[in-house]
Amino acid sequence: MVNISLPDGVNLCIIYITTMKKILYISLFCAIFYFSWFFAGSPDILSWQKISIIKNAKNFIASVFFADSTTTEALKEHYSAVEKTKSKIKLLIVAGHDDESGGAEFRGVKEAKINLDLALNLAEFFKSNDKFEVTLVRDKNGYNPIFLNYFDKERESIKEFSKKQKETMSELVRAGDVFSVEGVIHNSAPAETALKLYGINKWANENNIDIVLHIHFNDDPTRNRKRQEEGKYSGFAIYVPEAQYSNARASRAVAEPIFSQLAKFYPVSNFIQEQDGIVEDQKLIAIGAHNTLDPVGMLIEYGYIYESQFTNDKIRKSVIKELAFQTYIGSVSFFENNQKKLLAYDTLLLPHKWEETLQKGVKNNESILALQTALNFEKLYPPEGFNKHDCPITGNFGHCTSLALKKFQKKYGINDEAGEMGKLTKNKLNEMYSF
What we know:
Blueprint: H1 8-19, H2 24-41, H3 47-65, H4 72-80, H5 82-85, E1 89-95, E2 105-106, E3 109-110, H6 111-127, E4 132-136, E5 138-139, E6 142-143, H7 145-153, H8 155-174, H9 191-206, E7 211-218, E8 237-241, H10 248-263, E9 278-281, E10 296-304, H11 308-311, H12 313-336, H13 366-377, H14 399-411, H15 423-433
Parallel strand pairs: 1-4, 1-7, 7-10, 8-9
Antiparallel strand pairs: 2-3, 5-6, 8-10
């Protein structure tokens, strides 16, 4: 081991780096300054020692580039101190796509529209909680003027930001200090969309946003769109940054209770690369491709756009609001450590008063949505031998609902109404799950 006395300027530079938050370019400057001095002033140093020092320096640069930009501890401390500091948790909600890049579409249902509907509902839930400060990238009037102005004035700086991050990432991958991980294959974002997404990341970094949440619905790329056929996949998935990224650990920690809450009622995607439910990804710009996002980032695919609960105007409004509410509950439970129960049933679909007689074949019905949810709480829906893909909560009274209702009736000693909602069944449901 060779002990080297460094010049004062180098020592000061190193001290400065250790006290700053992930400033890559200062680190690179210091590294260049040090090695210029080192190699010029130390000709007697053995070549293998020089190689070792270079390797350590590359590892140092990688560690700075991928230092934790946010932590679960910091987020929870921030949340706990809101009343004292008056500094709220800053949440940025991004309704995926827009009028120009509408995303998926099925029989007149446009993803950009239902993304926005869910985002608006979600924003209202968070705004009702005085510990959160909510910003929407777009609302029913279009893009937030803050972002329109930012995309316009900062266009070149956004391009430079994304370019530098890509170059640094590529260099670290080539050097073997970072592993490139192939995940789900996504459609490439058009240039203008990519610029907006990188711009959102840059703005979030500059404005000390704590959580960035992107809202989307999925589609099956193999389905016949010309014939408007349904696809073969269903269910939700949450995308988070790949484990090497600076915001990865905190993002996964926030995503986990959201996933658990959604999974109580909805199926996890059965697309093979999404079956874990929480999916790590290096390439999605929305969650910080090339390590471009400092705060927690996640993108939720709430289901496949052709699933029946999303295609019917009558029922979709309630389903979208419920998905937003479940996301809100999951988010708050991260900060509250699952100790705070917001409602008796953790759903907006209950309590419910059943008044009409319901039977097999009825579709797109609010009372059936509530019935399926109540049967879910009874652990009878989906019925034995079926899963949430076979028997989703749709508001349609089919075979699954009939089987589950028979089990409910047997459980509570209700005879002569097998699989249908007669007077006795209604009375029991209202006794247990009504107002």
